Amino acid sequence: TLLGIVFFFVLAVNRGWIGPxxxxxxxxxxxxxxxxxxxxxRRAYGPVYSALSAAGAGIAGGYATLLAATALYDLVPRSVxxxxxxxxxxxxxxxxxxxxxxxxxxxxxxxxxxAPAAIALQDGEVSSIGTGFTAVMFAATALVAVTRRWQxxxxxxxxxxxxxxxxxxxxxxxxKWGVVAVATAxxxxxxxxxxxxxxxxGQALVTLPTTLILLGGLFAGLSSVQLFEGSDEGxxxxxxxxxxxxxxxxxx
Length: 252
Fold this sequence. Notes:
The protein has 252 residues and is an all-alpha fold. The mean pLDDT is 89. The radius of gyration is 21 Å and the shape is flat. The chain is 86% helix and 0% strand.
């Protein structure tokens, strides 16, 4: 049945029977139906893998449909696409918390974190607004990961967000305060998430918080060198070191 639907859909697209609006509409409908099927399976049979798979497929399908509507067909403005991505992430996160499923949380939050990167690949440039949205999604990911002690989720959040903000800083050929603000937000988020996770775990120094602090400090230092020159660069490096020292003293 699935193959029949797929081949019919491909034939309809190739023959011009279905336009972009219909394609996006069918993708959204299919994603909603599969996501709803996950809830039905959960209610009928309990916490089975098929329920997680269906809900996860629905979330992934939602992002795929949104990407097609935005990047391929220009049916949805970029700003609206980011809001819709946040909505999908909120639904996925609520489902993940209710089901205690790190997999669903990852699909919802990491999918939204990667949404600006997908749009940037289509546009050919990284924007401060899109990267700022990524910062918000990383903050949400860190909150859920620390609260539930889901370290893999936080690690994937780092992997999904760091290249985006690094690309934004690398493209800035002069001091742009919007870029500085976004880079500072990421640095503080990485530092705060690392300290919070370490305190939450309550054991000897854990690998992931250590990695977050090291990468965050390295990113802040390199960003200071990239975005500032002369004495301004030195003052920014001193500011970064000072904040790290204050955090160390407070935790110690």
